[in-house]
Amino acid sequence: MSNVSSRATISARREPAVWILALLLTIQGLSFTIAAVRLLLIPEVTWMVHLPWFGDVLPVSQMVGGISATLAALTLITALGCIRLTPIVWLNAMAAQGITLLTLLLLYFNRFTEHLAGQGIYRYIFFTVMAYAVFMVFFLSLVVRQIAYHEPALRSARR
User: Fold this and answer.
1) Which among 33, 55, 49, 40 is positioned nearest to 116, based on CA atoms?
2) Which of 24, 29, 35 is nearest to 74 (CA)?
3) Residue of 31, 41, 78, 134 with fewest CB within 10 Å of its CB?
4) Res 33 pLDDT > 90
5) Cβ(15)–Cβ(151) below 8 Å
6) Cα(29)–Cα(93) distance, rounded to whole angstroms?
7) For residue 156, what are the CA distances in angstroms to 83, 132, 133?
8) Which of the 8 DSSP states describes residue 106?
9) Residues with Cβ < 8 Å from 145, sequence gap 6 or more?
10) What is the pLDDT of residues 63-104, one digit of tens each?
11) What is the pLDDT of residues 99-122, one digit of tens each?
């Protein structure tokens, strides 16, 4: 029985979708690392947002920089777990995409993109990251069986 399990794991590691997901998560983690360094070390004074439930104006660059640093660690650990095929990979990756989308949607609905209108490329990066997170949610939904359950590999190992 353990021989079938080990063959299933080896076969699942060869699945192209698993390697593509690991590559995409690594790229995302490195991008979040760059964003965190940029936002935490060089804060934008003009990036302030009024959040009514906090009752005050918050510096967005430092807040988003901290979230980016957390997401960078989470996605890089998830990418490593994806290569090792740990069962928690799908949950970690979905949590990272959910936190990303939640942060960007909160900023969008608080009219943060109006601040970015004159900032050049930052507005396009904002919407690109949002579209990427949505794409990753759909991609993760497609490969969940290959990552968490090794389903295609188990079927071929049983034959």
Assistant:
1) 49
2) 29
3) 41
4) yes
5) no
6) 11
7) 20, 32, 32
8) H
9) 151, 152
10) 888 888 999 999 999 999 888 877 788 888 899 999 999 988
11) 999 988 887 776 666 666 566 677
Whole-angstrom CA distances from 19 to 24, 81, 83, 91, 108 are: 9, 11, 7, 17, 32
Task: Assign 3-state DSSP to the chain and report helix, strand, coil percentages, each to 5.
Answer: 80, 5, 15
Residues 34, 83: Cα–Cα separation, whole Å = 23
Sequence-ordered list of residues with C-beta below 8 angstroms from that of 153, at least 6 positions apart, any chain: 7, 8, 9, 10, 11, 12, 15, 146
Contact 126, 113 (CB under 8 A): yes
Say which residue the tokens 């904002």 belong to: 126
Please give the C-alpha separations between residue 121 and each of 46, 67, 69, 76, 147, in angstroms, as whole numbers: 16, 21, 21, 25, 35
